Amino acid sequence: MNQNNKPTKPVDVTIVGGGMITNDLILPSVYHMQRTGLVKDINICALNSPPLKALKENKEILDAFPEQDFNAYPALTEDPKKNFPALYKEVLSKMAPRQAVIVAMPDQFHYEVVMEALKNNQHVLCVKPLVLKYQQDIEIEKIALEKGLFVGVEYHKRFDRRALMAKRGYKLGHFGEFVMGEAKMIEPYYYRSSNFQNWFTCENTDPFVYVGCHYVDLTYFITGLKPVEVNVSGVKGKFPNGNVGYMWANGRVKFENGAILSVIDGLGYPDEGAGSNEQCLSMFFEGKGKSGLIKHDDQFRGVSHCYLEGIGCAGSHFNFINPDFYKLVSWEGKGFKPIGYGYESVAASINAMIRIEGEVAGLSEDKSLKKRQEIIKEIDENGLIATPANSYINELVVEAARMSILKDGMPVKINYGKNPGAELR
């Protein structure tokens, strides 16, 4: 049932991209929604067949979701060396309208895939960042609203209970005014040997844009303060295949009240390390005669495991465990279910699509569009699910960051008002 107690109808889901995030979070989340009756058919479209074969044969997923499957595009019988870069367009064109498309592609392809989904009248969930240019964000927001289509952005840290507690506390004045902060997200070294080496190159993206955007969005989510200046410096390195990318990045983000957030990112957390990555956020605040503090040690949440044999992608024995983002656990049904704010974030966007379709069922075309737009604006204003309308500052920051890192760290100013944009200071 939706909020008006109307029966809900499950949606078909097409995932465009069969890589790491689809394996680690998106497919298990969608599979669970399928077996609980919220999702019907699942398609996954990739550039070629090997990642789809890997998904089909993933033992953890098979154990957790017995007897569930997805439609693979291209088919697994295709030559694994043959690429199908435009196949997703054909798959989207054959979908019934107003279903769900999840965009899980490298950053530089988000815009074209999201636009193709909207062209085919589909609701969209896109992994972060939505796009790399502010004007593309505005274009997507405008087209989606005109059509009454929902677009969500997978900034899952907004669903972390720690962030939700911090946001409420800040609003209640418990901390004071944000003035200085530091964030860190260092992803594993083994990423360099993954498909990252084929797309994570200097001209396309960098660690600040790829993962640092999580903490810039989170700071904005908690405080409501807009970033006004960005400068990012990078350290280059070579991937195993010889491609050059930024392996490390350091960003400095200034906010409208003068507050500063330093963000350190990279593809270099030791494979032998205890955590799957290193991530944390410290925020300091000024009050009357005293100061406040928010400190999130996100890489260590009080749980440690030591295994008889090394497990996981890096094969380490001693591990800091994060039970809050995503884990598969026992439940009252068959297999295992996903828990954590990663799953809740994916589910929230798909549930928003289902809610919209449920609440407009039986309405005339004009009334249906008006109702869709009302619900979309309500979600925008609520601010929990990231949307083009309530997370646009991220596109401005990303655009500024790319300008800065390609100019060896020169400061880039973010302008708001009638024509928001980024320009070298």
- By DSSP, the count of extended strands is 18
Share of β-strand residues: 25-35%
Strand order of the largest sheet: 12-11-7-10-9-8-17-18
What class do helices, strands and sheet pairing give? alpha/beta
Provide structural commentary.
This protein has 425 residues and is α/β, with parallel strands linked by helices. It has twelve helices and 18 strands. The protein has two domains: 11-157 and 331-388, NAD(P)-binding Rossmann-like Domain (Rossmann fold, 3-Layer(aba) Sandwich), CATH 3.40.50.720; 161-324 and 396-424, Dihydrodipicolinate Reductase, domain 2 (2-Layer Sandwich). Helices cover 34% and strands 28% of the residues. The chain has an eight-stranded mixed β-sheet with strand order 12-11-7-10-9-8-17-18. The chain is globular.
Keywords:
single chain, 425 residues, Rossmann fold, Dihydrodipicolinate Reductase, domain 2, 8-stranded mixed β-sheet, 6-stranded parallel β-sheet, 18 strands
